[in-house]
Structures are given as C-alpha cells and as structure tokens.
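Re: [help] complex structure
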Amino acid sequence: MSHSALSAVLADGPAVSPCLVLGDPTPDLSVEMARAAVGAGARLLEIEFPYSDPVADGPAIQAAVQRSLAGGTSTSRAFELLGRIAETCPGTPLNLLVYGNLVHRIGYECFAERAVAAGASTLLVTDIPLEESVPLRRACRRAGLGHVELAGPLTPAARLQRLAAVSSFVYLAGFQGVTGVRRGGFDAMLHRVAEVAEIVDVPLCLGFGLSERSQIVRAFGAGAGIAVVGSHLVRVVGDLYRTPSDADRLLSGYGAAVRRLISNG
Amino acid sequence: MKASLRPRQGAFGSFGGRFAPELLTPALEELETARREIVPTRTFRDELDREARAWVGRPTPLTSAPRFSARAGLETVFKREDLLHGGAHKANNVLGQALLARHMGKSRLIAETGAGQHGTATAMIAARFGMEAVIYMGEKDMERQAPNVKRMELCGAEVIPVTAGARTLKDAINEALRDWTASLSTTHYLLGTAAGPHPFPRLVRDFQAVIGREAKRQWRREFGGLPDVVVACVGGGSNAIGIFRAFVPEKSVRLVGVEPGGAGLDSGRHGATLVRGTPGLLHGARTMVLQDDEGQILEPHSISAGLDYPGVGPEHAHLQETGRARYVAATDEEALAAFEVLSATEGIVPAFEPSHALAFVLRARESGELPAGARVLLNLCGRGDKDLETYFALGRSPVRDRP
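Output below.
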C-alpha cells in the first residue's frame, strides 16, 4: 500500500494507532492481534520489528521483543507476518518501527523494497536520525515507501521544519525518555503538541506514554493527527497470555483494550 | 555503495557517525559543542594536566622486561597504565570527561561497565568531584568482577544490575543510553570506550591519546628512535586507540590490536569483532559488529569481562579497512598462559585484558606474525587484582621457571 493511503485515512479525522511487536507473543497471534485491533476500530497500525538491542524502548516493549525473539521471529519471518497482516487488514496503513541495524544489514534498498512488497506504508528507523538518514530516505523514495522521522520534546523549531520536510508524518515522542506508560506531565506534553502542530505542515503523530482515551482526546484537541499506544497495549499481551490456551482470552482482551482507546464512553 | 554509506557526522572513512535516536540529539550536540569549545581552552588543559599528575598518577613509566622478552624471543617494553590510579587506563578518560561534565554544569554521571574498571574509575572521579554516580553493570559481570562492585559502592556510586540479554557490557550500554535519554539535562553519560555515537569516539580517543604521546617521548629518550611494533588489546578499543594515536603517522611502526578469541574463532564463542565481524550499526556508530545474517547482535564470549563486547570503536574499523593497523585474536587459554608468564617472569600481575596482547607477543615470533628482532611496545593497560578470584577458581598451576 502506498503512503497516500495514510492521507485517505486521516481525512476521516484523527486516528488511534495501536502498536504491536511482530511475533509477540507468537507469530500467528501477532497477526490475529492486528486483525482484532482493526476489528475494534483501529484505522492505522504501528508494527515494530523485534531487535536484540532496542535502546529506545522501555521495559514493556523490551519484554515483548524478547518474547518475539525467543519464539524465533527473524527479520524474514517478520516480513512474512507483516504480509499476512496487510492481507488481513486491507486499507489499514502500516507504519513500521525498525532499528537501524536490521535495515543496514540487508541494505536500505532491499529493506524498503521488501517492506513495500509486504504491504507497509511508512517506515520509521528509530536510531537513524535526520543527518544519517539521507541514503535511507533515497531508498524509501525509490521503493515508494513513506519515510517518518522522530522528534522529541527538545527538538528545536528549525529542526522540526527540516524533519517535516522529509517525512510523511512527524512522530513526536511526548516525553523525553524511552517508550513506556507515564504518570503525570500531560499538560506540558499537550502544550508541546500544540506548539509542534503549528510548526510542522505534515500530520503529527504523538507517541510514548499514552494509555487512556482521555489523554488521546486531549492530544487530538491539541493538534495530533495520530496517537500511538504502544507499551500500554503490549503490556496487555504480557498480562493475558501465558500458555497457548490463553489465545482467545488474549485476543478478546486486546480487542477490548483497543476499543477503550478508540471510542468515547 | 561505500560513498553513500559514509556517515555525515564524525566519520572515520565509512565508519563512525551518529546513529542514535533523535531524543539523544540534543545531548550529543551539547557534548560536541563542549568538546570543541571547552576542551581546547588553556583553563581546561591546565586543570586536566594538574589532575592527571596529582590524582591519576601520570606520567606512567616504560618498563623493559628482559625475562619476559627472553621468553617471547622479542624485545618487549611495557607502557605501565596498570600503575594508574584505579589500576587501569580508564582513569585518563574519566578525568577528562568528568572535568568536561563539570564545565557543562552536569551534576550526575552515569556509566556502563564490563570488567568494572571503567565503573570504578567513574565512581572514583565522581567522589573526588562530589558528583552523583550511577553505574550500569550486567548481572553476569557483577558476579565475575565482585571486588570491583564493592569498590564502586565504597566510593559512593550506585551500581544497577542489568538483567537484559546476556547481562554483560552490551546490555549495560543499552541501559545507560536509556537512562541518558530521560536524564540528559542533569546528567553526563561518561562512556568508557572509544565507541558510541559522535562525538564519543573522538572525545575518548583524545583523552586516552596521552598514553601514546608519553610513550613515544619516553621511548625516544630511553631507547632512541621508535618501536617497530605497538601492541594493545582491543575490546571497545580505548586503550589501543590511546597508544596507537601518536604512532599512526609513523609509517615504520606496525600497529597490532589483539581481540578476545574466547574459546577459539571457529567455536563461535569469541569477541573478535574486527577479525570475524561484519559492518553494522551498534550503540550509535557504524562499525564492525558480531551479528547474524539478518542483523541481530550476537552474544560475544571472553574470559575477560572488559573485552566481552560485540562491537568496537569505529576508528579501529577504519584503521583495519585502510590497512594501517592489523587485528588478530588470542584465545582465553593463550591469555591465561600469558597472565601466568608475566606474573612469574616480571612480577607484574596483569589484568586479563592486556594478557591477550601479551599472548600475541609470546606467540608472534614462532608463528611468524612478527619478524625476529622486532622491538615491541605493549600497552599494559590494567593490573590483575580484579581477576585473581576468577583465576584461582580455575585451579591452574602457576609457571615455575626458576630453581
């Protein structure tokens, strides 16, 4: 799917994007979870490739990545699962979150082509920032894959504009730190969202720390077009799934958790 | 391909760069500005020199080693970084970075540590400067380097066990980077080796380069001319780049870095990143790494906790690529034997890390890796007290070469 699908989705209003780690808790269940999320109303999905050294991730996503790697989810397997998710959830833009070494190892061009072939719409490489992303962006452009840059609470205005100029959307980390659920500090974060929304002229995606519908509503009100919920949902997997017999419980629990983030009331 | 892979910031040929999450960019830019604007000032240099003499114990001597040399069949001279405060070359770097952090107004230092030498050095400088210190250390390393954990705590540092991954140095660096992302306004990440995102490889190299500058001057004065070979062990590579730096322009001087061969290069259980690795992105730099075909980082192995790292400083990757330096490996067994030989022949108990460099020199004449008559300068980068417990637990017999 091309990244223009994203504009189509956002034309219908701001969207919640649940995040899941491919292969967590098992390869098949991660595909089923994507389907459950879309069934619960998700119009976008964020998909993280498991990597041995996720330096930008907090404990919840680290644990998910470990579950996935322990289950044998290699990058090839991850692409296969991604392809199945794209088939299962047609019309849902899929943003990939990947660490640089996985992309570098098989080559930027090759990775971008495989991502597009599997049905991804955009790619955010967590640890390849603006200055070093030139060859990556070229590869994405050639493959027809949208490119996304990460911004943070301290990113200055001029740099935000440079990030926006090369991004399908800007992914703003709401808090200075690794991924994970936060308590407090939301007012300052919302202020920052409003400030960044004024500066960038592409959709603004807010991530890191969101776990409640009320926060999401306020983030949309402040100008975010996409709200990613990662650690909070990934923790649901750890809480609900222990053995294969927990599969149904996981899928209904995960769907319910997504629904609570998407619908008011 | 190569031109497009050249990093845009802090490159060493096609290696180096700043491959770190955007949230670290403000901290890395602040550090680079400080490196350019504060480090070269007269005030900073004077403070650094004064503390290096009074607290670190510089300069360290060169020591000729006739009985070891006879054993190796090569004339070998040691640069005695094992005599520095704290027992390793790590003090050079922590002093420089802590001074810089103080100039930058940071009150808290965080660090990773493998063997515990860098953590200990950080704990010591934090005590001297009255700064808070938090040290991340893999749980497995805490077990095999228990005395150093106690030393850090004695100096007032908090040691946080890291339970992720293989519970060694790589995982401790991940955790320190995570801490720094959240704490960068008050905190300096005192990275212990010449690796990581720009500007760390240059910052650490420049603070360690005193080793080679001193040694070159001392060699000229004491022996005349230059050594034929400079040898150092390489984990992350800070002691090696520190002694190599002054000799890089001297084309007659061979540079040899010795990596941990662990249980043997073909066993798959080693930490020989330059000898057996492939280019990748790890901990902020494009460098040589131990990884699988799809880019997952592999767990290294070495008896030496300080060399047990699946990456390496990017400048070494560059020196290897250009052929200016050569990198080889010595196994755990060779290192242990060299540890015993140096203790028995010269009365110097080396750390397991430089024991790898010693092992190379001991075999090099016979293996033909060095020519007969070569005069060797070896960076004896740390003393072995921290390794005694591990060594004795192996139940080996010491070398007896005298009646």
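The interface with chain A takes residues 4-5, 7-9, 17-23, 25-26, 164-165, 170, 174, 177-178, 181-182, 184, 279-284, 286, 289, 291, 293-297 of chain B (CB under 8 Å).
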